[in-house]
Amino acid sequence: MAASSSLFSSSSFQGVMSFQNTKLCASYSNFVYKQPMHLKRSSQNNGTVSCRALEVDKSSSSYSVGKKFQVTDVIEAQQFDRDLLGAIFDVAREMEKIEKKSPGSQILKGYLMATLFYEPSTRTRLSFESAMRRLGGEVLTTENAREFSSAAKGETLEDTIRTVEGYSDIIVMRHFESGAAKRAAATAGIPVINAGDGPGQHPTQALLDVYTIEREIGKLDGIKVALVGDLANGRTVRSLAYLLARYNDVKIYFVSPDVVKMKNDIKDYLTSRNIQWEESADLMEVASKCDVVYQTRIQRERFGERIDLYEEARGKYIVDSRVLEVMQTHAVVMHPLPRLDEITVDVDGDSRAAYFRQAKNGLYIRMALLKLLLVGW
C-alpha cells in the first residue's frame, strides 16, 4: 500500500462490497471515504477481498472518517503535516485514558498485527505489541526475522510480505536496509508501519518524540533543539528533524563527531522550510540555549569493519551532571534508547530526564496509529 493514494467518493449505499484484485476498499455514507479497512479473504468469494462497512460518527472533529486521515501506511515522517500531527496527538491522549482502564478496550478485537523485526528491538516491538493488546487485538510476532525466518533461506522481502499479509491485518516491520519499508508497503494489501529501516527513518519514534516535547515543554513553536550523537546514521534524528520543520521559529543545533555529522539531505530540507540550523562542537554552550537536548548513541552496528571510526566517535559527547548544570530549568533531556554511556546514570534522578517518560509515550502514539489505520477516526 503506497504512502499516499487517491480519494474515492460516491453516493450513499449500504452493505458490503467486494472487489477482485483490488488493494483498497471503501464504504461510503454521504462523504468522501479514504481509510484502510479490515480486509478478509474468503474461500467462498473466489479470492475477492471483502470490506466491512463501518458505522461512522459524523459529529466528530474536522478529522472525521474519510475527510482527512489519508495515510494508509506509516513509512516516513514527511507524510504528516502540522494539522494531522495535532489530530493524532489528540487521539494519543484518548489512548492514555484507555490504557489506564482495566481490563482494557476492545476497539481492535478481531484484528491481528504481525511484527517483522529483522533487527533487534526491545521498546519498539514491545510497545507495538502492548498497544495492540491494550486495544483488544492479537499479535503474531517474530523477534529476529533476519536469522529465524525464511529470509535466512534467501526468501525475498516481497515474498515474505505477500505471505504474512495473508495471516494478519497490519504489519509492523523493522529492517536493516533503508527503503525496505517503502518496498513492503508497495507490495502489501494491508497497512504497513515502518518501525525503522536501517539508517533511513523511524517515523513512529519521531511522532512520539514530538508528542513528548509538547507535553514536557508545553509548546512546539519557537523551541530550540539540540540533536546530539550519531546524526549520520541515526534514523530517529532524521525523522525528528522532518517533523520539527512543521513548526514555526524552530532552531536545531547539530552536535556530533565529524565522522557522523548530519547528512546534507536533512540540512537542505530544513533550509528549504526556512528552519534555522547550526552545527556546533560545543555541547555545553548549546545545552545552555536549548529547550531539548536529544542525545543518541553512537551506533556500532552502522560502522561495519571500521572499528577505528567507531572508537573515534564514541564518548565524545556525554550528557552528565555538568551538562545539567548549564541547562535551563524547564529544559529536558531526551533519548530514543537504548543508551550506553552517552547519558550517565546520575542524570536519571533529575526531573529534566524525560527519556523514560518518552518511552512510555510511545505506547500511546502507537495505540493511536493502530486504531486510526485499522478502524479510522
From TrEMBL:
Q: Which reaction does it catalyse?
A: carbamoyl phosphate + L-aspartate = N-carbamoyl-L-aspartate + phosphate + H(+)
Q: Where is the Aspartate/ornithine carbamoyltransferase Asp/Orn-binding domain?
A: 221-372
EC no.? 2.1.3.2
Molecular functions per Gene Ontology:
amino acid binding; aspartate carbamoyltransferase activity
Q: Where is the Aspartate/ornithine carbamoyltransferase carbamoyl-P binding domain?
A: 73-214
EC class of the enzyme, as a word: transferase
Q: Which residues form the signal peptide?
A: none
What keywords is this UniProt entry annotated with? Allosteric enzyme, Pyrimidine biosynthesis, Transferase
GO BP annotations, alphabetical order: 'de novo' pyrimidine nucleobase biosynthetic process; 'de novo' UMP biosynthetic process; amino acid metabolic process
- What Pfam families does UniProt report for this protein, alphabetically? OTCace (PF00185), OTCace_N (PF02729)
Specify whether Transferase is a keyword of the entry: yes
Which pathway does the UniProt entry assign to this protein? Pyrimidine metabolism; UMP biosynthesis via de novo pathway; (S)-dihydroorotate from bicarbonate: step 2/3
Give the matching InterPro entries. Answer: Asp/Orn_carbamoyltranf_P-bd (IPR006132), Asp/Orn_carbamoylTrfase (IPR006130), Asp/Orn_carbamoylTrfase_sf (IPR036901), Asp_carbamoyltransf (IPR002082), Asp_carbamoyltransf_Asp/Orn-bd (IPR006131)
Q: Which family, according to the similarity comment?
A: Belongs to the aspartate/ornithine carbamoyltransferase superfamily. ATCase family.
Return the NCBIfam families for the record. asp_carb_tr (TIGR00670), PRK00856.1 (NF002032)
* Annotated function: Catalyzes the condensation of carbamoyl phosphate and aspartate to form carbamoyl aspartate and inorganic phosphate, the committed step in the de novo pyrimidine nucleotide biosynthesis pathway.
Q: How does it assemble?
A: Homotrimer.
Q: What is this protein called?
A: aspartate carbamoyltransferase
Species whose genome carries this gene: Malus domestica
